[in-house]
Specification:
The structure is a single chain. This protein is α/β, with parallel strands linked by helices. 42% of the residues lie in helices and 14% in strands. Strands 1-9-8-6-7 form a 5-stranded parallel beta sheet, sandwiched between helices. A 4-stranded parallel beta sheet has the order 3-2-4-5, with helices on both faces. Strands 11-10-12-13 form a 4-stranded parallel beta sheet, with helices on one face. The structure holds 1,3-dihydroxyacetonephosphate (13P) and iron/sulfur cluster (SF4). The site of 1,3-dihydroxyacetonephosphate (13P) has 10 residues, from loops.
Length: 358
């Protein structure tokens, strides 16, 4: 059972109360985007580019990625694939930290993004000056940064981790007797502390999409669908995680749904994952977990507003004008950020190979 553990919350840091959200594309813009499919596909081939997309991008972008022989995955797999590809030009459809991670690991490659202002609320919750101060206040702690952070924050970390590895790394560091200074997601920080019993100084950041999943409404939904398994991303609040049958990254949720004999699932993560879920399991029923709303309006409606900036129109623009859409990371920052990122990738490989036992 999930126990709500007392955390050492870090309070003296500046975390935005609200975020400036980009405008959502209209239905007409979405339809126009669909009509650009063949043009975008031809351009990817002509430029010999690799398209890497996250599961939260639009179904049109994911279909394009499949048709172009690209790669769709969670943030860990995207990082790995970008590093291992022999293509010179890599287009990352996702949010900024995903593009930066690709650039940090592959500085010699041209990394472009459809829209360079595709932020992430977690990234915006952690500024590097606050982190430097917190490090001085907790010199005994190992700094573990979620992948959803800027290159500058990554450069200050001892470890980077994605949601698919976070608990394992927590257990590993607990065995070494190390407390963790965790940035920036409060819910994932609390999940790591619970699952690995480690001492966590936790940043108070949040993802506006996952933070909105609502436990009481979920309980009601479960009563309406008593057979359904509840699959939850660990960026959701503890009370929602507590109701989960399974907690995991986007890829892990997908694998669980594929291999489970169950026919019905309630999904608490960004809604564009339904594209892959329904393609992979057409015979199964996927239901959206309820989100909180104010006066009948939800803020994100389980749809990441920054991921939506990845239109086919902007991808075509990026492929035609790569300089204007190119990711750059200052070399000093890049070299520092590469170390904890490479540690994450070898930790993941060692775990898989059974070289690390927890
Ligand atoms: P994953 O690592 O599960 O893909 O999550 C990335 C993300 O941004 C979740 O909101
Ligand atoms: Fe960031 Fe949340 Fe969007 Fe993921 S869903 S990219 S964590 S804002």
């Amino acid at each position: 059972l999930y126990k709500i553990m007392p955390l050492h919350m870090i309070n003296n840091v500046s975390v935005p109360e609200t975020f400036d959200l980009p405008n959502r594309p209209s239905l007409a813009e979405k339809n126009a985007d669909e009509a650009l499919f063949d043009e975008a596909l031809a351009l990817i081939k002509e430029k010999n580019a690799l398209l890497i997309a996250h599961y939260y991008t639009s179904p049109t972008m994911q279909r394009l990625c499949e048709a172009a022989g690209g790669f769709i995955g969670d943030s860990l797999e995207m990082a790995r694939r970008g590093r291992d590809s022999d293509k010179q030009l890599i287009a990352v459809a996702g949010v900024r930290f995903m593009g930066e991670t690709a650039k940090i690991l592959s500085p010699e490659k041209d990394i472009i993004m459809p829209n360079l202002s595709a932020e992430c609320s977690l990234d915006l919750c952690c500024n590097v000056d606050d982190l430097r101060r917190a490090k001085q206040e907790h010199p005994e702690a190992t700094v573990v940064a979620y992948a959803n952070t800027s290159a500058a924050v990554k450069a200050e970390a001892d470890w980077i981790v994605t949601s698919s590895l976070a608990v394992e790394l927590g257990k590993y560091l607990t065995k070494l007797g190390k407390p963790i200074l965790w940035v920036p997601d409060r819910h994932l920080g609390s999940y790591i502390a619970n699952q690995s019993d480690c001492d966590v100084y936790c940043w108070p950041g949040r993802c506006i999409v996952h933070d909105a999943f609502e436990a009481n409404a979920l309980e009601k939904k479960q009563k309406e669908h008593p057979e359904a398994k509840v699959l939850v991303h660990p960026e959701a609040p503890a009370a929602v995680v507590e109701r989960a049958d399974y907690v995991g990254s986007t890829s892990q949720i997908l694998s669980y749904a594929k291999s489970s004999p169950c026919k019905e699932f309630i999904i608490a993560t960004e809604r564009n994952i339904f594209y892959k879920l329904t393609c992979a399991c057409p015979e199964k029923n996927f239901i959206e977990a309820p989100v909180a709303s104010t006066k009948g309006h939800c803020i994100s409606c389980a749809n990441c507003p920054w991921m939506e900036l990845n239109s086919l129109k902007s991808l075509i623009e990026a492929l035609n004008h790569p300089k204007e859409h190119s990711l750059s990371v200052d070399e000093n920052t890049r070299v520092k950020a590469m170390k904890p990122l490479e540690k994450m990738l070898s930790f993941s490989a060692d775990l898989k190979a059974g070289k690390i036992t927890l």
